[in-house]
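Practice problem: predict the structure.
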Amino acid sequence: MKKNIHRPLLLQAAALVLAALALAGCVRQVAPPVPPTTAATTMLEEILTSTPIPLPTDTPVPPTPTETLAPTDTPAPTNTPVEATPTNTPEPTAGADEEGTPAPTGSATPRPTLAGVEIDPDQEFTGAHHVDEMETVSLWTDQSGSLPDSQYLKMEMADSVMTVTGKLGQWDTWWVSGFTLTNFYIEMDVNTGDCNPDDAYGMILRASQSGQPTRGYLIAFTCDGKVYAKRLDSVTPYVATSILLPTATDLIYAGKDQDNTIGILFDGSSISLYPNRRYFTTITDTTFPWGRYGIYVQAGEAGNFTFTISEIRTWGVQ
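Answer:
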């Protein structure tokens, strides 16, 4: 934790990308954890230009979030669900060592069966459907055609996988695409990699348009199996209000090298969370009725947390 508070910086960059569902362009913003005490409060925002724009020199410490909405009892969609059938993925068996002596054989560790009923988004949601298989890098690049690689965030795309690294420990960092949606269900397939328990990965949703100060919802899973949600109200000064405190759930596969699907339904003021396609809870918030989506990461205290994304899917809600 740094002892001095530095002046915030605002770097802007984004790219126009033609896509069937929205404008192209990426916005990255970085802000300190909520609430920082003696942490650095450098901000970064890249919006349609690479020219740094100075911000005010005095950055007050963000206030503690003032409101937390408890989960509600809103039921999951009522269409016919599909029963979950998770697959057991055994660990590979070690082979012989260099001297020809058989190495110890590892025992297979099956993934636990998740409770609840798995939804089928293709049955539940009949609106426009889009799949990003992480093969079109231009959907995520800035105006120069590059993915971010700064002191805050690094993103790479290769072999149909997006690799995301949050570099600074306990900093909220995001990168926004050009897709704009109103009422929708969205899923993101993630592998947690070599994570620490306090590392978090997720999405920024209903984010503001390019050229405007970033606002939106930050929703994430942690490596130790919790889910949380924040409403990003301001970046200068940084203000993020908790709308769901970190809550443990056995619907998330916790630990290193785990595959999880983050599912989120936005329908009016209702925000429903579906870890691995199982209904968990619904939050109500009326602040942001529509907006863009993107990637969110908060590395834990150790910093340099890397996870991978294999696919993002969206369905319109009618």
